[in-house]
């Protein structure tokens, strides 16, 4: 990895690890719908000029249904449920639960017909990961808010399913266009609810600052840097940040908000990481497939 790639990777690990902390602060005074509206609206205003410069809405063509579905599953639903859940659970717990996204992604890929993950190693990783999730949540479910856990399940499923829509139906559309338009659609959708739930008094400086960081830094700037990271190191290696973001969220929750982080949660997170690596690793090519490229003259290896 080049120095540029390493810096981008480190930046993304932080930028997508800190939102849980600022969401926790913001929902202390704002409703989840209001927070999502402001966050998506500001970020859309920043990203849409980049999208228009890349060809505008013409690039979307007839794929508006897929784009709306992506916006709903990747942003509108998860960001609302995550904000709502963090009114009941700690930001550290929310961040650690997000680490289950790769495991759910494997389950969705298998359900869609991909049999690559049905081998023993992948199935073992899936079971290990589920055990890790159980440790993070705690075996005594009565000690954890049930509604918040259901909301986190919806967040994880949304984050895991959205890339499938992106890969199947939105290939060829510039990433900045997809994200910019998706954010704009979400802002428009949440505007009526946010208007009804708008705070009667000016929020505290901590909340205003948190919203600004979420919208400008964690959304607009983060997506622009993520696109550069993908161009620098490739999409597969770029997804490794999903293994680091929850750890950043947990550390910040404990250090800044003095949230509780048990030994079981830490051990469970390690199991989720190990299980995700096992479940998502690609099967080693057979001897025949390894020899195949050699029969193609001029193929770069």
Task: Describe the protein.
The longest helix is centred in the C-terminal third of the chain and has 29 residues, at 205-233. Helix content is 73%, strand content 0%. The protein is mainly α.
How confident is the prediction overall: mean pLDDT? 83
The count of domains is 1
Number of strands: 0
> Which regions have little confidence, pLDDT < 50, spanning 5+ residues?
286-301
Strand percentage lies at under 5%
Task: From the alpha carbons, calculate the radius of gyration and give it in angstroms.
Answer: 20 Å
Q: What is the count of helical runs?
A: 14
Summarize the helix and strand pattern as letters.
HHHHHHHHHHHHHH
Given the C-alpha coordinates, what overall shape results? globular
- What characterizes the major β-sheet? none
The helix content, as a percent range, equals: over 70%
Provide the fold topology.
Elements: H1 3-15, H2 19-26, H3 32-53, H4 64-85, H5 91-98, H6 101-111, H7 120-137, H8 146-169, H9 175-196, H10 205-233, H11 235-238, H12 241-257, H13 263-280, H14 287-291
Overview in brief:
By secondary structure, the chain is mostly helical. It has one domain (3-281).
Key features of this structure:
mainly alpha, 14 helices, 301 residues, 0% strand
